[in-house]
């Protein structure tokens, strides 16, 4: 027996002896019996790390997978960290939520039992619920932390563990490193103090969240809406939760705001971890909204409104009879521009806009928000990819006397106020519907408003090239691609000269940008183009974000859009060709 084979089998045997989950114990036993050394090597390659949205990985046994043992260690670390930061943390408690994925209930329950095992109260959401609800409750209940078992829009085989700090936003450095260190110091899960769930309820260590807290969530979202109730016009909309947890929450929110012509896709309304009607439960993916489009055509609905499975994202499509589907999907950047403009413009019109208002987006989202902020007299900030950085900038802005109004990332994440300190697909849907109703009342659509904004601040075209490279070999190749481009930085991209570049892996570049270091390359082109390249923090992908912008000239809006779209196409072709050159 080779030394490596013996090491892996020993790791697996020790894991089995300490694993609280019979399913994953059996999984590892089968791999040992089959002498599948490659599979064992993958499962014990490295511990899961905190990425842009917490821990996330394939469900399964071992150090590198999402399972009860890893979640127990993480929950223990979150509770220990909270106790170290706040002497009153045990009384304040930790909110525990989960989505409707496979194993989410079991993983959330073991989280609650381990947290209660340290004497820390648990605020337990009784049903699978939207991630933004748990995030809201962290602030509303003055909790010491929040954990949510969710993998958002990842494929069915994934799950995750998202962590919020006492300030109600996702953890950032150095807190993530502190929690990781506590987690990694746990030698045996069996040695962790743990209170059985029912015993925790009896001892008042587990408190079930009730209707009062649920009502507070809706009231907080309503307070950040600007339009009247009922709306000035009724917009017919088809909604879908893509087999996630958002359906009842979205319908109640829209009903509270007076929207009566709402038609849900019932086949996708109930949580189902198999996501049976979609190939990929991400509303950005081709085919994900097919059932919504079909119902929309049947109802002749004006708008499609979609949440991802944990309802922290929002997608939308506008009726367009010229389209093959009958609808024209809005990109995340377009939705961000529309929502940001409404909150700034309508807020100012109603006297509800703070004097030193702040909008925030990420370095891979459209630069059009900067132009919009300048036109509306708002302050603007760019941050690293990941919504945690948007709220981190909001807190920094507050220290300068600025009031956060809106934040978004191009991956369909929006925060339309301060009720939820994270992206929120329920609150964003309510704001989008009131915008659509206000536009309809004056004979306009969301597409018309995009035209108006393009004429005011210029045309912007965006696209993304995302290359999936799964497994250890894929991760290694992503590293080689980034290294090769760093070694030979481009002088021209898509036939356009590179004006300047930035590498956030360089301490000097990161410091000059006022950003934390990261594996991100950015190239700005002459005439307004931009290319950003980075490995995904939540999926096995290399992501490349492309943008071209230009003012509308004498040739008109259509001509400007065609030119910008053509440039984005050339940028995409260059990116694909460059990646293909690197084995």
Task: Give your account of this protein's structure.
42% of the residues lie in helices and 19% in strands. The chain is α/β, with parallel strands linked by helices and 583 residues long. The protein folds into three domains: 18-24 and 45-209, Alpha-D-Glucose-1,6-Bisphosphate, subunit A, domain 3 (Alpha-D-Glucose-1,6-Bisphosphate, Chain A, domain 3), CATH 3.40.120.10; 214-457, Alpha-D-Glucose-1,6-Bisphosphate, Chain A, domain 3 (3-Layer(aba) Sandwich); 458-580, TATA-Binding Protein (2-Layer Sandwich), CATH 3.30.310.50. The strands form four sheets. A six-stranded mixed sheet has the order 1-5-4-2-3-6, sandwiched between helices. The protein has a six-stranded antiparallel sheet with strand order 16-21-20-19-18-17. A hairpin with a 7-residue loop joins strand 10 (314-319) and strand 11. Helix 1 (3-18) runs antiparallel to helix 2, helix 4 (68-85) packs parallel to helix 6 and helix 13 (332-349) packs parallel to helix 14. The chain is globular. The mean pLDDT is 96.
